[in-house]
Design goal:
The protein has helices spanning 42-59, 71-81, 111-128, 165-188, 204-210, 230-238, 261-277, 360-368, 380-388, 392-400, and strands at residues 2-3, 6-7, 9-11, 14-16, 18-22, 63-67, 84-89, 96-98, 101-103, 137-139, 194-199, 216-220, 242-246, 252-253, 258-259, 288-293, 343-345, 356-358, 418-421, 426-431, 442-447, 457-461, 470-471, 477-483, 490-499, 508-513, 520-526, 536-543, 560-567. By secondary structure, the protein is of the alpha/beta class. An eight-stranded parallel beta barrel has the order 5-6-7-10-11-12-13-16, surrounded by five helices. 45% of the residues are buried.
């Protein structure tokens, strides 16, 4: 719908802002092309969907972008969770099979190729046109980039168009094919809009000339905290609504070589503020109808796509200066493909299912989606007030209290919920004062003062509820880095208040000894021989100097430094 205020998507007679997310179900150890749960029983598929859609509904998501989902599950998701589906076809983005031969780069001017692509588009509309819960159709996935790329792996994104006449001709053929497929879809279904998925604004001039029948300009766009001129350019050059098919941030800080939930939440919240600011009626460009955060859970298969499906790779594969929080210099690779999930992914069980552990971005976006830009009387002032009150530090704390806890890296701006005991011992986050073996900027400082008890230490627990927060199904091995003012110190890590069916509250501990003084060492604490991996605990306690009655009088700031508490 277009009017003087801007452009809107209307669903069942109501203005609809797309609070969407990219969604799939790919267990650790498999890749996106594996059949996974989809060839298993309905009971298992429902268990997977129920677990994830409950989280999505709680977050305020009203639409998912996905591929190859069976129509009956589209309806199940819609009827049980009120979440719409935007089915997507790749439209040759990653190559296609012609006459039994795999072609890695699609030629959109080839008649045989166009026949295959048109059949794919017609299959899309014929499969879903009568299905309750369909929001719209989407064609492609940044196919314009893949005119240059020859694999599914991501390289540096070409934001500016190419003046190479051969590439321009190939792109023109692509957009003609998009438009012809759109017309065929509309012949068969006049009730659902059709969007394409372009990479950023590359070849926007050709989109204007060739894609005259599409309804929505969809784009994958990674520009950092803002989309900048995208809204105005799409309005001026296409006079069309813009929808973001992918955007967001990874949760891995390539500069510091560790997870960074605060950073991910920061960029995601900034992107959504930009989206809402440019919806109809709020006084800015007014042509944005929403978007789909990328993505719901981590893709452990994405780095190489042929190996290491059971390894959470931390190799940054492309460079983007818009995300400077994890770069030393603008040319550094900083985008970690396997870490874009706003939920961390647990191990796969015997049924092929897994748990999700929401990161800080999940909780921050839950607050984001409580805002309705189409509510009567809403202004930019209301929007600014809403986003100003989203506390990213609180989101980090919520994530750590909801088992997305490990690793604790102490680089986020929030202080994590650790507390010290006994007799004056203190714990606080400080700047790292000893770079001998650890270059982290921030660490924990545990100060065991002279009158502290011999058993003093610090704990991480959920002091507000009785909910178990340490889940050993995620691993029974814990490591931590520690820097001690003296050698020979005994360090104890203890799991306390086990949540089990047996009587009492048993606890288990492992001791390790620090061999050297005044340098960082990594200690490993393996609970596997003591504790069943199904156990959960309500508290983890760490004693940096256990059973030591001969304390060295060291000034505060140089006692015990702790970093990178990690579960394996």
């Amino acid at each position: 719908m277009k009017n003087d205020e801007g452009m809107k998507l209307v669903v069942d007679g109501k203005d609809f802002i797309v609070n969407g997310i990219n969604w799939d179900y790919v267990p650790v150890g498999s890749t996106v092309t594996d059949p996974g749960i989809w060839i298993k029983s309905d009971e298992i598929i429902k268990a997977a969907i129920d677990g994830e859609m409950s989280l999505l509904r709680n977050m305020g998501v009203n639409a998912i972008r996905t591929y190859n989902i069976h129509p009956k599950w589209v309806t199940y998701i819609y009827e049980n969770y009120g979440i719409y589906t935007m089915p997507n076809i790749t439209f040759g983005a990653y190559g296609l099979t012609l006459n039994g031969i795999w072609t890695p780069q699609t030629d959109y001017s080839d008649p045989a190729t166009l026949e295959v692509l048109m059949a794919e588009a017609i299959g899309l509309v014929n499969t879903y046109k009568e299905i309750p819960g369909i929001l719209m159709y989407m064609l492609g996935n940044e196919n314009n980039y893949h005119l240059s790329w020859t694999s599914a792996e991501t390289a540096d994104i070409p934001v500016e168009g190419s003046e190479d006449p051969n590439k321009k001709a190939a792109a023109r053929a692509l957009y003609k094919a998009f438009n012809n497929a759109t017309k065929e879809i509309k012949k068969r279904d006049t009730n659902h809009p059709v969007a394409i998925c372009n990479g950023d604004l590359l070849y926007l001039d050709l989109v204007k000339e060739e894609c005259t029948d599409i309804d929505i300009y969809g784009t994958n766009m990674y520009r950092g905290i803002s989309f900048w001129d995208a809204f105005q350019r799409v309005k001026d050059e296409l006079n069309m609504p813009i929808m973001f098919a992918e955007f967001g941030s990874d949760a891995y800080n390539a500069r510091d070589n560790q997870e960074d939930q605060y950073m991910q939440a920061y960029y995601n919240v900034g992107n959504w503020k930009d989206i809402y600011q440019h919806t109809a009626g709020l006084g800015k460009v007014g042509n944005c109808i929403g978007g789909f955060t990328f993505q719901f859970s981590d893709g452990w298969w994405k780095w190489n796509q042929t190996i290491n499906f059971d390894i959470h790779d931390t190799i940054a594969t492309w460079n983007n200066g818009g995300y400077s929080k994890d770069q030393n210099k603008e040319s550094d690779n900083n985008m970690n493909e396997e870490w874009f999930g706003i939920c961390a992914k647990g191990p796969t069980d015997s049924r092929g299912l897994y748990k999700l552990y929401p990161r800080a971005a999940y909780y921050a976006l839950k607050e984001v989606h409580q805002f309705n830009p189409y509510k009567e009387g809403i202004t930019q002032k209301n929007l600014n007030h809403h986003f100003k009150n989203i506390n990213l530090k609180d989101s980090v704390l919520k994530a750590h209290g909801d088992k997305a806890s490990f690793p604790f890296t102490f680089e986020e701006e929030a202080m994590l919920p650790f507390r010290a005991f006994d007799n004056g011992a203190t714990i606080e986050k400080v700047a790292n004062s000893n770079l001998n073996g650890n270059h982290s900027a921030s660490v924990l400082e545990f100060n065991k003062v002279m009158n502290s008890a011999w058993y003093s230490g610090f704990v991480f627990d959920d002091m507000l509820t009785a909910t178990p927060i340490i889940d050993l199904v995620n691993g029974t091995i814990f490591t931590l880095k520690i820097c001690s003012p003296k050698a020979g110190v005994n360090v104890r890590v203890k799991m306390e208040d086990m949540d089990a069916s047996g009587a009492g509250n048993p606890s288990f501990y492992v001791d390790q000894t620090i061999a050297t003084a005044n340098e960082w060492v990594t200690l490993t604490f393996d609970f596997g021989s003591q504790v069943d991996s199904a156990y959960t605990f309500k508290r983890i306690a760490i004693f940096p100097d256990f059973d030591d009655t001969n304390q060295v009088p060291v000034e505060k700031g140089a006692m015990y430094l702790i970093d990178d508490i990690t579960q394996h």
